[in-house]
């Protein structure tokens, strides 16, 4: 039985890598736009990228224990609460406490922006029942309609994210020049 769980985890791991890469690259793109707008110092781009994978920390439970729910010392738990707005904000607050005091507020904002971008991308995934999970928990348990734009196993969102991120990187690094038509 344990062998089946491990093989399931490894199978999910391959599919999840493309999705994880997409979340990280979208975080990079958002962070770069924040730097271009002058509202964000360059050093916070990696913080947004880390924030963009924070909601998927709950998937570590799958790899460690073979499931998202269980009991520890007879106390039931579920890791799904982390993959919500409330869980993302709490983890962003904990993450911000690990940063220098002078950068904590902006780190909290950057981690939250990354986490919210993750939840928005996940909102667009095709769902069988047409409803997304309750991402607004604990504010409400309402199930928003799913965007039904792509399946989580589709490769095209990753391809779009890679091309966009490479374009953004090329512009930021000076490898791509954009001429002003004026």
* Count of separate DSSP helical elements: 6
Beta-strand proportion = under 5%
Q: Could you give the count of β-strands?
A: 2
Mean pLDDT: 85
Terminal Cα separation, in Å? 67 Å
H-E order: HHHEEHHH
Described by strand count, sense and barrel closure, the largest sheet is: 2 strands, antiparallel
Shape: globular
Characterise this structure.
The chain has 182 residues and is mainly alpha-helical. It contains 6 helices and 2 strands, in the order αααββααα. The protein has one domain. The chain has helices at residues 2-36, 45-51, 59-65, 85-96, 104-123, 156-173, and strands spanning 69-72, 75-78. It has a two-stranded antiparallel sheet. The longest helix has 35 residues, at 2-36. The radius of gyration is 18 Å and the shape is globular.
What are the SSEs and their pairings?
Layout: H1 2-36, H2 45-51, H3 59-65, E1 69-72, E2 75-78, H4 85-96, H5 104-123, H6 156-173
Antiparallel strand pairs: 1-2
Task: Put the structure in a nutshell.
54% of the residues lie in helices and 4% in strands.
